[in-house]
Amino acid sequence: MLDELSHHDPILTYGDPKSKRGPKARFVPSYVAYDKKVLKFLAYFKQNTPNSQEEKYRVRFVHILYFLEDDTICIMEPAVDNAGIPQGKLLRRHRVPKNDAGEYYHWKDFDVQDDVCFYGIYYHIYDCDPFTRQLYESEGIDLREGEPSTPDDPYIHDRKMRLRPHSYVTPSQWDKLRQFLHMDRQVLRFFVVRDDRDELYGELRKYVLLYYLADDTIEILEVHTKNDGRDPFPCFLRRQRVPKKLEHSLTFPSISLEVSPKEVKVWFLDTDLKIGETVCIYNSRFLIYDCDEFTRNYYREQYQMTDFTPIDVTRRAQGLEKRVAKPPPITEPLVLKTPAKDYMKYLENDGIILRFEAVLESQKPYHRERRFIISYYPSDDTISIYERVLRNSGVIGGKFLHRRRVDKPESTKEHPVYFTLRDFCIGATLQIYNHRFQIVNADQFVLKFLEANPAGLEGTIASLRQFFQANPTAQPVCTTEEGAASDERDEREGRARSASPGPGLEVVQVSQMPDMNQPGYRSPVDQYLEQKQRAQAEKEQQQARAEGMAETCADMKRKTLEPRKVTFCEDAVQRCD
């Protein structure tokens, strides 16, 4: 023991005789022998910072000093630049209690890669100095090797990242303040026209588009004429920055409906406005047909443009006939015309329902658990969505979307585009009325139906085959109860929508068709043509009756308006005289 060696002289078992030995060593007390001999251990501890938004904890590195002369311990924290906390002596020099039994820490209780607890704080020893390691080796104790790395302090690491050299981009000299100071009160004026005569009650209307060079904002004013029948409100679009294209993110609309930079990538600039261009502002198309002299001079100086030939929009207005709704006749019955339908497609695919399972894409966790059943009807390309009922979800399930044709986000009034079976691939995302649905499952019947009708559906068939190969035990999309309830509702809606192809016509259901081998069998097409002929004959009879009634009414009116002849008796006249 180190204590015994400090109080006793060494005794040589083998060696020179006592007569040749030197003088006896002088007694040295332990506090003199171990004076200024200190063991140094490198350690760290983690300190929580609950009220900080930048960090959750701090890593503080300390030096544990053990004084051999009196077995006292002191803890020192080296100074770190810009630490923001007081540093130095964390624990004064004294004997540290080890447990409640009255024992104190001894130098044998320390080892590298161990944890020691001083007054409720755990210090992890990750290394020591060479003197400490040599002293332990002289006493026959081997310390563990030091740890190759230590955790970084988040705050100090963030400070170093801020202070490290980094590239700096010089800001553009043409900033917003300079743009405002140089371009204030300078406005480009364009004369535009909005032509929506291809729609019902549409007309050709003129506007003035003002582009403010000070902040790149646009304002549209309406041009009024005498007796135009419109309120004298000139502002069609208030002054604002106009986006060229909106890209709605998953979080739009959020708590505020204002457009943020997440939805807008490119704004309208002065380079996008020129004579002959058609600009689309919030789904309204404006044709630029002329501009003022200041605008011409601006484009000549800035962009060296020379062609400013105005477009004659009056000639274009005269060449297009104005669409006016034809009022219904007064004396004739009102005959409703149904839209044209593909009856052969309806007869072949009636009663067929293709079901897909989808999840709702959202950043909100409670929306991700919702499950939907998308039913596609190939008879008329309609879609219905049914939401599954989940217990304790807080969301009422049931009918989410009634059976109808759903147009795509890029669809317009002039060119409508609807969802078809090509869009229902496994993993595809369908944006239906600002809701994003991801297809995750389908019925086995869907793959069989598409394989029997593969025209133009190769991508959908390939995705389904790959899905069923990877998931051979995939569950059906919906249970029998859910399918029966959904089918009953959708059947009623589909019958109300497509069971009346015309006045007096009845749709022949496939399930009610007689056997083709029976004598006197007539195909559904023949039956449909006969029904159509009967309906045409009934229509002609109604028109004939209406014409007869009109002639009768005209005769009665003519007789009522004829002047009446009045005769007087001569005897009565003489008596009156």
UniProtKB/TrEMBL annotation:
<feature type="region of interest" description="Disordered">
    <location>
        <begin position="1"/>
        <end position="22"/>
    </location>
</feature>
<keyword id="KW-0963">Cytoplasm</keyword>
<dbReference type="InterPro" id="IPR040193">
    <property type="entry name" value="EFHC1/EFHC2/EFHB"/>
</dbReference>
<dbReference type="GO" id="GO:0072686">
    <property type="term" value="C:mitotic spindle"/>
</dbReference>
<feature type="compositionally biased region" description="Basic and acidic residues">
    <location>
        <begin position="529"/>
        <end position="542"/>
    </location>
</feature>
<dbReference type="Pfam" id="PF06565">
    <property type="entry name" value="DM10_dom"/>
</dbReference>
<dbReference type="GO" id="GO:0060285">
    <property type="term" value="P:cilium-dependent cell motility"/>
</dbReference>
<feature type="region of interest" description="Disordered">
    <location>
        <begin position="475"/>
        <end position="557"/>
    </location>
</feature>
<keyword id="KW-0206">Cytoskeleton</keyword>
<dbReference type="GO" id="GO:0043014">
    <property type="term" value="F:alpha-tubulin binding"/>
</dbReference>
<protein>
    <submittedName>
        <fullName>EF-hand domain-containing protein 1</fullName>
    </submittedName>
</protein>
<feature type="compositionally biased region" description="Basic and acidic residues">
    <location>
        <begin position="1"/>
        <end position="10"/>
    </location>
</feature>
<dbReference type="GO" id="GO:0007052">
    <property type="term" value="P:mitotic spindle organization"/>
</dbReference>
<dbReference type="InterPro" id="IPR006602">
    <property type="entry name" value="DM10_dom"/>
</dbReference>
<feature type="domain" description="DM10">
    <location>
        <begin position="35"/>
        <end position="140"/>
    </location>
</feature>
<feature type="domain" description="DM10">
    <location>
        <begin position="350"/>
        <end position="454"/>
    </location>
</feature>
<feature type="compositionally biased region" description="Basic and acidic residues">
    <location>
        <begin position="486"/>
        <end position="496"/>
    </location>
</feature>
<feature type="domain" description="DM10">
    <location>
        <begin position="184"/>
        <end position="303"/>
    </location>
</feature>
<keyword id="KW-0966">Cell projection</keyword>
<dbReference type="GO" id="GO:0005930">
    <property type="term" value="C:axoneme"/>
</dbReference>
<keyword id="KW-0677">Repeat</keyword>
<dbReference type="GO" id="GO:0000281">
    <property type="term" value="P:mitotic cytokinesis"/>
</dbReference>
